[in-house]
Specification:
By secondary structure, the chain is an alpha+beta fold. The protein has one domain: 2-Layer Sandwich (Heat Shock Protein 90), CATH 3.30.565. 34% of the residues lie in helices and 25% in strands. It has a 5-stranded antiparallel β-sheet with strand order 1-2-3-5-4, with helices on one face. The protein is globular. It binds adenosine-5'-triphosphate and magnesium ion.
Length: 153
């Protein structure tokens, strides 16, 4: 049951336009598992939040081709693991950063709900600083098994 059935690894520059690209790629990666629309939407939202954090916070909106985001996915028979990492400024206090409404954005553009959204839409999330700098967010999403029974087909 813990067998890895597919993997994906990609590096993309931390630019705003890559947020929609990243979430579409991760969603497409899961289609073989026959996910529900809700499951796919949850994954898309969580990936968007994590990638936006890399663009906005880790690399402070520089939009440079040199600032990279790494996305690594592993697909299991009924679960996706997605790891989104950057080499940006890192997070001084991860526990505090994950609290609802906590934000370091000085201009009031952010609500401080990104990690809370990731937490509620995915089954597990862990946030760590990388040795050498930057942040890694690892999330898992379980898929409903036996959809025929659920939908009555
Ligand atoms: N990849 C990252 N690198 C550096 N700091 C980060 C990163 N991700 C999050 N943070 C820090 O954690 C805080 C909380 O993140 P969270 O996504 O919950 O809220 P936000 O990004 O400030 O607002 P929102 O996501 O609602 O627009 C951020 O304000 C920022 O200080
Ligand atoms: Mg955020």
């Amino acid at each position: 049951m813990n067998e890895v059935i597919n993997t994906l690894s990609m590096n993309i520059p931390a630019k705003s336009e890559n947020e929609s690209f990243a979430r579409a790629v991760v969603a497409s990666f899961c289609v073989g598992l026959n996910p529900t629309v809700d499951e796919i939407n949850d994954i898309k939202t969580a990936v968007s939040e994590a990638v936006t954090n890399c663009v906005v916070h880790a690399y402070q909106k520089r939009q440079s081709n040199q600032d990279m985001i790494t996305i690594e996915c592993k697909l299991f028979p009924a679960m996706l693991e997605v790891k989104i990492s950057d080499r940006g400024v890192g997070i001084a206090n991860i526990t505090q950063a994950m609290e609802p409404f906590y934000t370091t954005e000085p201009n009031g553009e952010r609500s401080g709900m990104g990690f809370t959204v990731m937490q509620s839409f995915m089954d597990t999330i862990s946030v760590n600083n990388q040795s050498g700098g930057g942040t890694v967010v690892t999330m898992q999403k379980n898929f409903t098994k036996d959809k025929q029974k659920v939908s009555g087909e």
